[in-house]
Amino acid sequence: MENVISLVEDRLKNGQWKLTNRRKHILTVLLENRGKHLSVEEVHGLANQKAPYVGLATVYRTLELFLLNDVVQSMDFGDGRKRYELCDPGSGGQQHHHLICIRCGNVVEFSRDLLKGLEPELNMRYKFKVETLQLNVFGFCRKCRPEKGSHQGTV
Fold first, then answer.
1. pLDDT, averaged in runs of 10, over the chain (155 residues)
2. Where is the domain boundary, 55, 71, 90?
3. In what order do the strands lie in the sheet with 107-110?
4. 87 is in an annotated binding site
5. To bridge 83 with a disulfide, which of 2, 10, 24, 37 should be the other Cys (CB 3.0-4.6 Å)?
6. Do 60 and 13 reside in the same domain of the chain?
7. Which UniProt keywords are present, listed alphabetically (predicted)?
8. How far does CA 109 lie from the centroid of its chain?
9. Residue 139 located in a structural domain
10. How far apart, in Å, are the Cα atoms of 96 and each of 26, 53, 105, 108, 112?
């Protein structure tokens, strides 16, 4: 955990920012909840359990600062709430994708290079510089799948 905190601190310093105590509390919440997709309100609630002086506005600003510095990525799972997830500094830029159940809201992550080749094609064809590439697949999880006779695909 300390290694990631040091990496984030260095990244922020390169952008002329500091890892203040409040930002460190927020980063710790993200580290302790790695693999979860937390809303601003959820991050705020968890941060306040350890540091009650961290305000909601501070959480918003910090998450946007972390987003700007590639510490977190944000995503929208179609529920009207922006969610944040800690970027894995050791992933070498490998993306993961999400299967999202439209009935229960369950999110399953999977890693597979389904979008390989898309980024250069978009750049060449449309002169579009891709910054982030995400694939969110909406459907029904195993528990929520419609009964036989309804349209259903295999996962």
1. 86 90 94 90 94 92 92 82 78 65 82 76 87 78 78 52
2. 90
3. 107-110, 97-101, 136-139
4. no
5. 37
6. yes
7. DNA-binding, Metal-binding, Repressor, Transcription, Transcription regulation, Zinc
8. 11
9. yes
10. 23, 34, 18, 10, 7
Q: Are residues 55 and 30 in the same domain?
A: yes
Residue 148 within a domain: no
Cα–Cα distance measured from residue 104 to residue 127, given in angstroms and rounded to the nearest whole number: 39
Same domain? For 78 and 14 the reply is yes
pLDDT at 4: 86
* Residue 65 confidence (pLDDT): 95
Of 104, 86, 116, which Cα lies nearest the Cα of 142? Answer: 104
Q: Which structural domain range is residue 29 located in?
A: 1-90
Instruction: Report CA 116 to chain centroid distance, whole Å.
Output: 20
Is the domain of 20 the same as that of 78?
Answer: yes
The reported pLDDT for the residue numbered 78 is 74
Q: What is the pLDDT of residue 123?
A: 86
Q: Which amino acid is at 139?
A: G
Amino acid at 89: P
Say which DSSP state 131 is in. Answer: S
What is the domain-level CATH number for residue 110? 3.30.1490.190
Which stretches does DSSP call E strand in the chain? Answer: 38-39, 72-76, 82-86, 97-101, 107-110, 136-139
